[in-house]
Amino acid sequence: MMVILISILVMVLIGLGDGLEKRQAPQNLFALQYRGLIENMEPKACFECPWIPGKDCCHFVPLGSVDPEKEERQCPPGLGWNQETCNCDWPSLIKPKGICEPLYTCNINVTTVNPGTTAVAPTCPPLFENECCIPETATWYSKINDTHYRVNGSYPQGCPEGMNFDDISCCCLGYTIVPDPCKLWSFDREAGNEFTDSIQQTFGQNVRSTISDGHLGTDKGVFFQNQERISIPYFAGAYFGKWFSLGLWVKSSSNNFGTVVLSNGNREVKETIALVMVGNSIAGGVATAKEDPPNTLDMPLTAMGDDGWHFVAMTYDDPILSVYIDNNPPLVFEQEGGGILSNFCQLNLGGVQFPNFSMDELCICEFTWNATDVAEFRDNKAVPKLY
To answer: Which UniProt keywords apply (predicted)?
Structure first.
């Protein structure tokens, strides 16, 4: 193992500087390790839905929940939980058909009555601005933003794609919306919400990872031990397109034999986005539509510096991939071109590593950052805006 590690670390690394590197298929030892690390991701990281049905067809709970009653979440009004698609869906699309009629079968704050007694109608609580209530069940909703709301003051929930939450009718309505194109996981949120993004309430399913010190020492980050990960179902099947960016802080170590920082693949699903660390070096990239065969190892193993926290950003502007490390000029790689491929594996953070590592301030946007955007996010934690 040590011989392999030394061989990898003495490979020719790309210097940090300007320039355009023509992409070439890697044929070296590190390419084999790169593939092996990604393919070692456990199969259920891609195929196992991180949620399971709750008390009825309108509720769902995190897989492996230790307190289902407390962690249970409710689908938007009129929708039911579809385990097959791992999402809230229209009842007519849930199999077998007829299994879910939300108005009649969902146990949503309904008062139960003993036989022979008089039913007591539920009542709505006092409502504040941006709140509404369904009198039949006394279920009340608090609007968070155009696409998200809370049910009875519980966890944030989102409308189906393409819909807005209306606080007059208490329903998600199907007119066109323009969602925020960025998502940010700062891991600084209050206990229970650390794995929810700070912009649109996109959930990440935590698989044993823990909140720890962040890159500033005064903030929080997330700490991964062997096989621990965070899975984000939102990106399963997502179309990343021809313009894409992500930025994050990672804590590296010269003792690191190999870590998957993030990936949406494993042995059975070909990844289309990936970053891998070995020691204090990092590699990765994106797989695009015109590649034959598709491959994410665009940036070979590249030195970041000494042990400790490092900033990494990756931007794609068809056909150019740029990678920023700390405050160095970008490394630029020319792709064959086309949109970043999608697959139905959720995006996994961590999941395959030998020593431990930490991550902080993960931001993913559906547009290309420029150098100023990268610097503002790195230095000031300012989420870039699409103008």
So the answer is: Signal
pLDDT digits (tens, 9 = 90+) for 268-318: 899 999 999 999 999 999 999 999 999 999 999 999 999 999 999 999 999
Count Cα atoms within 13 angstroms, Cβ side, for 75.
30
1-5 — which CB contacts under 8 Å span 24+ positions? 1/257, 4/29, 4/33, 5/257, 5/278, 5/279
Distance CA(188)–CA(18), nearest Å, equals 34
Opening angle at CA 266, ends 260 and 270, nearest 5: 110
Mean pLDDT, range 367-383, rounded to an integer: 97
Residue closest to 171 by CA, chosen among 107, 60, 79: 79
| DSSP label at residue 330 | P
Identify the sign of the CA torsion 97, 103, 104, 107: positive
Using DSSP, state whether 146 is helix, strand or coil.
Answer: coil
Q: Write down the residue that tokens 């409502």 correspond to.
A: 127
Crossing angle for the helix pair 29-39 and 2-9, to the nearest 10 degrees? 120
Pairing of strands 331-334, 20-22: parallel
Say which residues have a Cβ less than 8 Å from residue 343's Cβ, sequence separation at least 6: 236, 237, 264, 265, 269, 270, 271, 272
Task: For residues 350 and 190, give the distance between their C-alpha atoms in angstroms, rounded to a whole number.
Answer: 22
Rounded CA-CA distance 194/100 in Å is 32
φ/ψ region of 3 (left if φ > 0, alpha if ψ in -120 to 50, else beta) reads alpha
For 93-127, how does the pLDDT look when each residue is reduced to its tens digit (9 = 90+)? Answer: 788 887 887 766 676 543 333 333 343 456 788 88
* Token representation of residue 103: 């108005």
Task: State residue 31's pLDDT score.
Answer: 93
- What confidence category does residue 136 fall into, taking pLDDT thresholds of 50, 70 and 90? low
